[in-house]
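Reopening this ticket.

The earlier resolution said the output was attached, but the attachment link was broken on my side. Pasting everything inline this time so it's all in one place.
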Amino acid sequence: MRILIVDDEPMARSYLKLAVEKQGHETAEAADGAEGYRFFQEFKPDLTLCDICMPNVDGLNLLGNIRAKDPDALVVMFTGLGSEESAINALRLRANYYLQKPVRHGELMHLLQKYEAIVQARNIEQQVPGHTLLRHFRIEFDNTMALVPRRAGYLVTQTGDMYNEKQRTCLVLGLVELLVNAIEHGNLGISREEKKNAIEDGFDAYERLLAERMQLPELANRKVTVDFKQDLNGCEWGIEDEGAGFDWQGFVADLNSEKLFQTHPCGIYLSRSQFDRFAYNEVGNRVTVAKFAPESPLQ
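Inline output:
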C-alpha cells in the first residue's frame, strides 16, 4: 500500500515510517495538515494515518478536506489520552478508524493487515452485466479471518450496479467490521477486553489468541451465515454466528457515550454509520443491516 503519515512530532513520524515500511509499504510524510493535504493530492495514498492535534491545519480539518476531495479515501486518526471528544468528532467526519497515542506496534500491525486486505479487495475489477431486479441467497463462511475483506467485497459485488463507488466502499468497510465481530466475539468467544489486551501485547499475541481458539473444535467448526436479499428498494444482509450472543441492548444504548472511546472504537459503532437500517435479534447473535437503493421510496 501507499501510506501517508501526517504528524507534527518527528519521532512519531519516524516510528510509524519504520514500522510501516518494514511491512513492505511505501510511505510519504507530512508535518501538518496543510502539507498533508498537498501530499494527499500528489502521493495519492491508499491509506492516510493522521494525528488530530497539529499546528496550523489540524487533523480534523485535514480529514474534512480529504473527504471533500475523495469521499472514498481510507483515513485513520490518532488521538491522545483523554481526547474522547476529538475521537467522536473524527468519526462524525467519517474517519474510518482511530488509534490512541502512543500507538502500540501490535495495534498498528493489526490495522495495516486489515486495510491492506480491504484495499486489495476493492481494487478487483468486477464486470456486472445488466441490472438486477431481485436476488436472494444464503452463504456460509468459516472462521478464516484473513479472508474477511475478500468475502465482504464479494457480498458487495452481488449488489450489481445499484450503488456508486463511494457507497460500495462504505458497504465493504461496514461488512468487514460485522464479519470480524461474528468470528471473534461470536464464534470464537473472544471478549472485547481479551482482544484489546492481546493487541496491546503485540500483533503476535493477537494471532496466538485466534490460533488458540481455533484449536478448540467446538469453536473452530462454527460458521458464519449470511442471508442476502436485493429488490428495487435496496439490499439487506443478515449476518449470524453460532455464539451465545450478547447484551446488545445495553451495548447499543452506550454507542454515543464517551466511555466507548476510552479504549478502542468498536466495530458496531464503525459499521452502524454505513447502513440505513441496523438491528439485532433478541439473542444478539444475528445482525441485519440494509442499504436503501438511491431511488427507493424508503430513502
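Reporter confirms the inline version is readable. The chain has two domains: 2-103, 135-292. The radius of gyration is 19 Å.
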